[in-house]
Amino acid sequence: MLARAAGRILQTLAVLLIVSIASFSLLKLAPGDPVVLMLGTEFSQDSYDDLQAQLGLDQPVVIQYVRWLGDFATGNWGNSYVAKTDIFDFVVKEALPVTLTLTACAIILAIVIGVPLGVMSAVRKDTFWDAGIAALALTGTAFPSFFLGIVLIWFFAVKVGFFPVMGFVPPWEDFWQGMLHLVLPSFTLATFFIGMIVRVTRAAMVEVLDQPYITAAIARGEPRRRVIWVHAFRNILMPLVTVIGLQLGAILQGAVLTETVFSLPGLGQMLTGAVLGREYVLVQAGVMLTATLFILVNLAVDLSYPFLDPRLRAR
User: Fold this and answer.
1) CA separation for the pair 17, 34 (Å, rounded)
2) Structure confidence by residue, pLDDT tens digits, 121-155
């Protein structure tokens, strides 16, 4: 098991290296000269040369990459020439907590709603309930999140007034107001994910319920609820955790639209503003950070398999 974990960690480091090369190439392939963007419309050749040397852009590409990678690893991400702030503080201390809070709420909401619906659909296979839940899951995966967000704002915030229209209040500063601001964007972001979890849970549970050990547990007279939630549910955890880990990338992509619709100051809105403002250094940092988060979550999912299925510990 330790050898497998070590191999998976080395594989993750190799993927991170490839992602870092792709992220660094963004600045080189992007249109425009970052030195000109920072200096503005009027500048002298001397000031251009000085700033280029200060940024290290007069060095060979390989040296620039090694220097950039070292700066990223140590948190020295430079300054935003639009916001005039330190990029590390802006991304990690301001934008990242908003996106992580929104993503965590969306995942929790999706699991709390999606897993029971998936189990109910499997237990009542080929019934009215099964067909209804399948229709809801398909609708959730097919409905555009940005349109759903606008509809929710129009009804629950503007017409009914149950929730704030937009904005973000940190729950760690004011928990009640923070939750009120997160309900609509979390549900918008979780809708697609709920449909995925329902379908995966149902498919895995239907297969497990047909296994002989489930039939034996029922024959022993064990309560139906225990058979479903202890014997059967334990054996669908691995595919369920796998889907949750793989779908994190889709959730982070969905966060870009959701944060824009609800005016949440997270990574999505930051990346949108950075792209529109052609601030490619900030885009680099955001892309590298989100890719790193996605890769590390998938590493954690892989390393959790032996704990979810004891048979893998002996391999």
Assistant:
1) 24
2) 998 888 888 899 988 888 887 877 778 888 888 88
Q: Could you read off the pLDDT of 45-95 as tens digits, one per residue? A: 777 777 777 777 777 888 888 888 888 888 888 777 666 778 888 888 888
Q: Which helix (H) or strand (E) holds 298?
A: helix 280-308
pLDDT band at 41 (very low <50, low <70, confident <90, very high): low
CA–CA separation, 57 vs 43, rounded Å? 17
Q: Which stretches within 153-247 are classed as H helix?
A: 175-209, 212-219, 224-226, 237-246
Q: What is the pTM of this model?
A: 0.81
Gap between the Cα atoms of 31 and 37, Å rounded = 11
Angle of helix 61-73 relative to helix 280-308, nearest 10 degrees?
60
HEC profile of 1-44: CHHHHHHHHHHHHHHHHHHHHHHHHHHHHCCCCHHHHHHCCCCC
Q: Which two tokens stand for residue 257?
A: 């639209």
Report CA-CA distances (Å) from 127 to 18, 123, 141, 211.
48, 10, 21, 21
- Tell me if 184 sits within 8 A of 130, measured CB to CB: no
Structure letter (DSSP) for residue 266: S
Torsion over CA: 37, 41, 45, 51 (sign)? negative
